[in-house]
Amino acid sequence: MFEPTEDQQLVARTVREFVERDVMPVAAEMEHRDEYPHALVETMKELGLFGLNVPEAYGGSAIDYTAFAMVFEELSRGWMGLAGVIGTHSVLCDVLTRFGTEDQKRRFLPGLARGEPRGGICLSEPNAGTDLQAIATVARRDGDGYRVTGSKMWVTNGRYGQVFLLLAKTDPDAEPAHRGMGAFVVEKGEPGLTVGRDIGKVGYKTVETVDLHFEDFPVPAANLIGGVEGEGFKQVMTGLEAERLNIAARGLGVARAAFEEAIRYAQQRRTFGKPIAQHQTIQAKLAEMATRIEASRLLVYSASAKKDRRERCDLEAGMAKLFATETASEVSLEAMRILGGNGFSTDFPVERHYRDAPLLLIGGGTNELQRLIIARQLLEKHAID
Ligand SMILES: Cc1cc2nc3c(=O)[nH]c(=O)nc-3n(C[C@H](O)[C@H](O)[C@H](O)COP(=O)(O)OP(=O)(O)OC[C@H]3O[C@@H](n4cnc5c(N)ncnc54)[C@H](O)[C@@H]3O)c2cc1C
Prior knowledge:
- The protein has helices at 6-33, 38-46, 65-78, 80-99, 102-114, 232-268, 280-308, 314-338, 350-362, 367-381, and strands at 119-122, 138-142, 145-156, 163-169, 181-187, 193-198, 209-220, 270-271, 274-275.
- The chain is of the alpha+beta class.
- The protein has 3 domains: 6-114, Orthogonal Bundle (Butyryl-Coa Dehydrogenase, subunit A, domain 1); 119-228, Butyryl-CoA Dehydrogenase, subunit A, domain 2; 234-381, Butyryl-CoA Dehydrogenase, subunit A, domain 3, CATH 1.20.140.
- It has a 4-stranded antiparallel beta sheet, covered by helices on one side. It has a 3-stranded mixed beta sheet with strand order 1-4-5.
- The radius of gyration is 21 Å and the shape is globular.
- The protein starts with 5 loop residues before the first helix and ends with a helix.
- It binds flavin-adenine dinucleotide.
- The site of flavin-adenine dinucleotide has 22 residues, from β1, β3, α9 and α10.
């Protein structure tokens, strides 16, 4: 059973009201124009959505993981791209909160909690995504700081964000490679950092995803997270664990949105003298969709509850991410079928959900990788020797 507390319900209700009042009426048009949602982002700042996982001592609200997931579900029900504006920003906040030095937390977290500046993460490169140990970006020691050289690809929030979590090699010869990596906070401003092109995408539009190029870019040693080299890979991986849950919750939100559209339409559209909802084939689809959504909900919120109890939940979070995002993809396609030709039309929101859903299969660790991680943990858990 998932029974949210009053506080959790209040958080979800606040975001739902924002989404229904401000987001849903404009999402389709803005998304098709690929227009950045500046005004909506301002309201998100006022609602405190940039400081959800920042401790109160540094200006955030530090809500629990369950409420955090509920925020991502509600935002994604309206517009998944908006969840993207706070998604990687939250990963940066998470890694800083957990591993940053006191000085780093004091310098960065209060601003990030207000959404001024906003953040993102620079991990993937043109030749390394799933296999992050294969990155080529290097942070070379230079006097009191480092000089970063390399190209990062797929940086969500890379144009309007100002502060990034960057993974780079501090010792390119280290074996295994992860022992020679550091995680840094990099800030725009110095010469040597160029924002490249906006990558064209089939969905997840509006939130920008760009290339960032570093050429001898200076980063103070004080920005090496935790002040230690060799820990970056571990720090980043822990941050991605938290991201898995927010991506699972986004899947739940997208699936819900597509289902709600489909079940409404099925009762209005008539063929052969009755609403299509009265045809058994359509009923079977609706039943299947709703069942998968309910199963996703239980997986997402049982994983978040475990995390809130400070229990290990990487297996459960992985399962939730896998199932809820596959569900988003399947349900949005089924919704499109239920709407018939209108499902394929840009006049209805289903086509947007259909285009947004596949990112969730890729981001936060692809679902292929997710299956491997789940299987590895199952084999550990059930080892016979
Ligand atoms: C819209 C968008 C936004 C993004 N935002 C960010 C961001 O803000 N910051 C950031 O750092 N990155 C970001 N990414 C990058 C994302 O994290 C990577 O695309 C993802 O990790 C996959 O890496 P890849 O694209 O290099 O695919 P690859 O790693 O090349 O994988 C290709 C295929 O091979 C499969 N595969 C790889 N290894 C294995 C294996 N061992 N076993 C089985 N199958 C395997 C993968 O599952 C995939 O199907 C974003 C991506 C997208 C599309």
